[in-house]
Amino acid sequence: MSDVTLLAAEALPERAAGNWTRGRPYLAYALQRLGQAIIVIVLAYVLSFLLISVLPGNPIATTLENPQSGLSPAQVKQVESYYGVTKPVLVQLWLALSRFVRGQLGVSLVSHQRVTSLLAGALPYTAKLAGLALLIALILSAAIAYGAQYLPARWARGLLRSVPSLFLSVPNFIIGLLLIRAFSFQLHTFDVLSPDSPVATAFAALALAIPICAPLAEVLIANLDHESAQEYVLVARSRGLGKARLFARHLVKPSALPAVTIAALIVGELMGGALITEEVFGRNGIGSVMYTAVSNQDTPVLQAIVALAAVVFVVVNLLADLIAPLLDPRVRLAGRSRREVATA
Amino acid sequence: MSLAVAPPPVVPQPSRRLPSALRGVLGIPPTVLASFVIIVIVFGWALLPGLFTAHSPVLADPTARFEPPSAQHWFGTDYLGRDEFARVVYGAASSMGTALVAVGIGLFAGGVIGLLAGFFGSWTDSVLGRLVDTLLAIPAFLLAVVVVSALGFETINAAIATGVSSVAIFARLMRAEVMKVRHNVFVESSYLQGGSRRYVLFRHVLPNAYRSVLALAVLQVGNAIIVIAALAFLGYGSPPPASDWGLLVSDGQTYQIAPWLVYCPAIVIVLTVLSINRISRWLRKTN
């Protein structure tokens, strides 16, 4: 979880405007990023295929040879030819890849359902959890950053500043277990047996949000520190602007801008964390599909989950990279003046 | 009123002097010192568990099941009457050792990739860059699950999986550091004086890049402990006679009547990771 912070800290100056360097045509930049994104998605699928297929044991063959698989010999033949099991690995890869590009993800080896419908059924649960967690994380990190800057007591500000590193050190399954113990077993705020109730969902999202909000809060605190030291803040203060108004009118936007890119990077953490949180709270979703697939060596399903995660990550980051330069007025101005110079 | 106002200037004095005295002696802030102490103890558990507990981690005592923490059993006992503290102490070797293996893998593979990409640039950089982007696009935990499920459920495989999932971040940082150094005047002058590529790489580029990569490596040990604990919690580590910390938490959560079986190993995990993160932060600051 801590990776993102460091990545962010290391890469902030260049990432602040979404990797877009000034003076480059925006369209060319957008097209290049789009091309990279597509390459990365295809590579992610290839990588997951190779990881699963090249490593010892051929799960598809094993499943087919298992007399308890409940498949008739004709069905076995059908599955074998579908995945090209008897052919060399590279041919199998080509088969899988050409189907993947057309959006076909194959059939589960266990439930014989289409992988796409299997994932489509589970996705809404995970999306709900992750979306709510992201919202909570954003609010929480903003509150921490604001408090760390403006709380009247010095010790309280210091305390808040150490909160992100504490949050980073607690695995989210432990947070989940503690929440369940405190609020379900002792206070009976929610029932663990009905994990999809709104209250239980809120607690699951909270468990997921706490480690996620740490890097966000860290970046926000650092940006607020940086912006507060700028001269325009001094000018605004000397003109009699109150701290709260100053924060709302002048500090929020420049401090939150780099956080957009960080928030996009966090999506990976969010998805990984959601898989564990779902298990801890006994929720339905991609997580439970994944655990079943892992214990049954259901490779097409596993590969599809990896591909899905990569697609989500790449698309969100692509959007963030494309939007960030448009949000930053400095970049916008630089672009306009350059264009004016060019036409003059 | 005056009584209430008077103390403040006096009180902070001694409390502020002690840390500053420590700082003067060792050059290390007290929280970092405390973190080092915790890490040394945990490493002690891993290397010489017998020194820290007289109990056996596997010997069951049916007469002492689910005993709450006491002077005899610091962390209480579990459902077989085994001493939980002994299980945590003996689990340290596996939990810490595998975290180090994971970081070693990430550091080596990621370091080499980043070094090549940053040092040679051009198409090497583009090809390796896409590879790193790909590794980064798969959530680290999901990647670890896929790798461990392909290799088989054992703690060492969980470590390999965790290592693979951290390759990208090491590669990114190493590349950034190398790029920073590469265009310095002293590197150019070294070339001009007839230094070979290899000489420049090992004499100038690596020594300048290693400090922040080291800070990341320390940070990653904490992260690896969390990921490996999560994998063990899900049952993707070695099966029960082993006592990985994540496994202890997952064992403990089955028994509602014995909350200490969850709290104690959980606190150990959090304190260990917190200490490691504190040390890493300090390394980065003094960089």
Structural overview:
The complex is a heterodimer of chains A (344) and B (287). With 344 residues, chain A is an all-alpha fold. Chain A contains 14 helices and no strands. Chain A has helices at 3-15, 26-54, 59-65, 73-83, 89-101, 115-150, 154-169, 172-186, 198-228, 231-238, 243-280, 286-295, 299-327, 329-343. In chain A, helix 1 packs across helix 9 (198-228) and helix 6 (115-150) packs antiparallel against helix 11 (243-280). The longest helix of chain A has 38 residues, at 243-280. The radius of gyration of chain A is 24 Å and the shape is flat. The model of chain A is unreliable at 6-18 and 335-344 (pLDDT under 50). The longest helix of chain B has 37 residues, at 84-120. The model of chain B is unreliable at 1-17 (pLDDT under 50). At the A-B interface, helix 1, helix 2, helix 7, helix 8 and helix 11 of A face helix 7, helix 8, helix 10, helix 12 and helix 14 of B.
Shape of chain B: elongated
- Fraction of residues in helix of chain B: over 70%
Biggest interface, and residues per chain? A-B, 52 and 50 residues
Mean of pLDDT of chain B? 78
Content-based structural category of chain A? mainly alpha
Strand content of chain A: under 5%
First-last Cα distance of chain A? 50 Å
Q: Low-confidence segments of chain B, ≥5 residues, pLDDT <50?
A: 1-17
Number of helices of chain B: 14
Count of beta strands of chain A? 0
Order of helices and strands of chain A: HHHHHHHHHHHHHH
Shape assignment of chain A? flat
What do the pLDDT scores of chain A average to? 75
What would you call the quaternary organization?
A: heterodimer
The share of residues in helices of chain A is over 70%
The major β-sheet of chain A equals: none
Tally of individual helices of chain A = 14
